[in-house]
């Protein structure tokens, strides 16, 4: 892929002048992508959005604590996956449009309208964009809603949605474990469990799990650090340093 | 299309026709009734482009008298079926036999009974309303 970030463009120019390394040798020059796992679920009374926090440029993790859940209005948030730049620009435009729409309407925008604006931008610019997004929020007419806007710019309302490269590993789990009408606590625990599986299996997902819970009362942002996530098969307990274990003189140090 | 939005758009267009010397203003007002997810709503747009949401509205030659009659009604407690009769009474009431031409009453409504669609009031209810209105008129004349 052609690198597009300013740093890599400069490096590219420099390297081509000096006949330097080709992009195959420098897998840190890629466009910023959010490999990502994003999830949105409806529960009884609202929605929970969740995402990992890894932004990669090629093999390098450019940001290990990024926030992929962006605010569109007081009551609507969007999970972003795909090209970091594309999804940021889309979010910015939709936030701007929704701001004006709210002023003219005289009341908070609905989740449907917000999702539709995202969809229009995604569909009408489909040849130029790589953005997979999940829009979630709460409004007084329909309550909690989740809308999926994947790559081509389709829009689909769903009780739960998954996206990003890590979502491949979640289809089976969701089909098996998803329940209609969970409580807020159940839903929050569920999304953390689900995203942590994707982080475990997907190299392009990692870091922390960020969640945003939206309901009639308002919005709650939460943060689940990497070492507090539920473990899956063959995963080790998180540890600071193996040297500490050796120093402690435990004879089981090398046994897993 | 929410009713509020429709009223705003119509009002903007009517107002537009008051802005330029080469455009003639509209010579009519509009009373707009609709039913959307915020419930039933009534808007009135005047030739000046002024637009408000109303609980009761009247336009035309007898509008002052009609408004007075409307203000006597307890709108919050009025059902649609009762409303038909009241409205008919008002139309017949403000009609001046001497000065005005004869008229034909037409009624339409939007309510739960009409499935939230704008329809002509069913014939039997229309006739009932007309009869009640005429009866009320005769009572007034008799005084």
From TrEMBL, chain A:
Top-level division of the source organism's lineage: Eukaryota
UniProt subcellular location: Cytoplasm; Nucleus
Single GO MF annotation: threonine-type endopeptidase activity
Gene3D superfamilies in the cross-refs: Glutamine Phosphoribosylpyrophosphate, subunit 1, domain 1
Annotated catalysed reactions: Cleavage of peptide bonds with very broad specificity
Keyword Protease among record annotations: yes
One Gene Ontology cellular component annotation held by this UniProt entry: cytoplasm
Chief localisation class: cytoplasm
Catalytic site: 36 (nucleophile)
Example GO BP: proteolysis involved in protein catabolic process
InterPro entries for the chain: Ntn_hydrolases_N, Pept_T1A_subB, Proteasome_bsu_CS, Proteasome_sua/b, Proteasome_suB-type
Keywords: Cytoplasm, Hydrolase, Nucleus, Protease, Proteasome, Threonine protease, Zymogen
Cross-referenced Pfam families: Proteasome (PF00227)
Description of how the protein assembles with itself and partners: Component of the proteasome complex. The 26S proteasome consists of a 20S proteasome core and two 19S regulatory subunits. The 20S proteasome core is composed of 28 subunits that are arranged in four stacked rings, resulting in a barrel-shaped structure. The two end rings are each formed by seven alpha subunits, and the two central rings are each formed by seven beta subunits. The catalytic chamber with the active sites is on the inside of the barrel.
Membership in a protein family: Belongs to the peptidase T1B family.
Its biological purpose: Component of the proteasome, a multicatalytic proteinase complex which is characterized by its ability to cleave peptides with Arg, Phe, Tyr, Leu, and Glu adjacent to the leaving group at neutral or slightly basic pH. The proteasome has an ATP-dependent proteolytic activity. The proteasome is a multicatalytic proteinase complex which is characterized by its ability to cleave peptides with Arg, Phe, Tyr, Leu, and Glu adjacent to the leaving group at neutral or slightly basic pH. The proteasome has an ATP-dependent proteolytic activity.
Name the UniProt record assigns to this protein: Proteasome subunit beta
Origin species: Aegilops tauschii subsp. strangulata (Goatgrass)
Record lineage: Eukaryota, Viridiplantae, Streptophyta, Embryophyta, Tracheophyta
Automatic annotation (TrEMBL), chain B:
GO biological-process terms attached to the record: proteolysis involved in protein catabolic process
InterPro entries, sorted: Ntn_hydrolases_N, Proteasome_alpha, Proteasome_alpha-type, Proteasome_sua/b
Cellular compartments per GO CC: proteasome core complex, alpha-subunit complex
Keyword terms: Proteasome
Family matches, as PROSITE patterns: PROTEASOME_ALPHA_2
Superkingdom assignment: Eukaryota
Keyword Ribosomal protein: no
Keyword Transcription belongs to the record: no
Biological role: The proteasome is a multicatalytic proteinase complex which is characterized by its ability to cleave peptides with Arg, Phe, Tyr, Leu, and Glu adjacent to the leaving group at neutral or slightly basic pH. The proteasome has an ATP-dependent proteolytic activity.
Assembly description: The 26S proteasome consists of a 20S proteasome core and two 19S regulatory subunits. The 20S proteasome core is composed of 28 subunits that are arranged in four stacked rings, resulting in a barrel-shaped structure. The two end rings are each formed by seven alpha subunits, and the two central rings are each formed by seven beta subunits. The catalytic chamber with the active sites is on the inside of the barrel.
Family: Belongs to the peptidase T1A family.
UniProt name for this protein: Proteasome subunit alpha type-3
Origin species: Aegilops tauschii subsp. strangulata
């Amino acid at each position: 892929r052609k690198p597009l970030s300013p740093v890599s463009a400069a490096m590219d120019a420099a390297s081509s002048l000096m006949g330097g390394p080709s992009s195959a040798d420098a897998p840190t020059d890629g466009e910023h992508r959010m490999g990502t796992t994003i999830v949105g679920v409806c529960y009884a009374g609202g929605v929970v959005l969740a995402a990992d926090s890894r932004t990669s440029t090629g093999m390098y993790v450019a940001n290990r604590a990024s926030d992929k859940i962006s605010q569109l209005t007081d009551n609507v948030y969007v999970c972003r996956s795909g090209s970091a730049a594309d999804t940021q620009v889309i979010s910015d435009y939709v936030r701007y449009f929704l701001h004006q729409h709210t002023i003219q309407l005289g009341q908070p925008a609905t989740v449907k309208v917000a999702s539709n604006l995202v969809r229009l931008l995604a569909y009408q610019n489909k040849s130029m964009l790589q953005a997979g997004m999940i829009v979630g929020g709460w409004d007084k007419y329909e309550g909690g809603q989740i809308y999926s806007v994947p790559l081509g710019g389709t829009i689909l309302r769903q009780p739960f949605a998954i996206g990003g490269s890590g979502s491949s590993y979640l289809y089976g789990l969701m089909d098996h474990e998803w329940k209609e009408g969970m409580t807020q606590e159940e839903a929050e625990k569920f999304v953390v469990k689900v995203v942590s599986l994707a982080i475990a299996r997907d190299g392009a997902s990692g870091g922390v799990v960020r969640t945003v819970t939206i309901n009639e009362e308002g919005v709650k942002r939460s943060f689940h650090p990497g070492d507090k996530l539920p473990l899956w098969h063959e995963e080790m307990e998180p540890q600071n340093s193996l040297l500490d274990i050796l120093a402690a003189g435990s004879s089981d140090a090398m046994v897993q | 299309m929410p009713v509020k939005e429709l009223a705003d758009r119509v009002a903007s267009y009517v107002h537009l026709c008051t802005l330029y010397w080469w455009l003639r203003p509209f010579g009519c007002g509009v009373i707009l009734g609709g039913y959307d997810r915020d419930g039933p709503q009534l808007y009135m747009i005047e030739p000046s482009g002024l637009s408000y949401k109303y609980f009761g509205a009247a336009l035309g030659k007898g509008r002052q008298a009609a408004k007075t009659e409307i203000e006597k009604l307890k709108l919050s407690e009025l059902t649609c079926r009762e409303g038909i009769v009241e409205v008919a009474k008002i139309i017949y009431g403000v009609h001046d036999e001497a000065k005005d031409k004869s008229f034909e009453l037409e009624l339409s409504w939007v309510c739960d009974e009409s499935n939230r669609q704008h329809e002509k009031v069913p014939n039997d209810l229309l006739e009932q309303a007309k009869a009640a209105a005429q009866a009320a008129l005769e009572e007034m004349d008799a005084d």
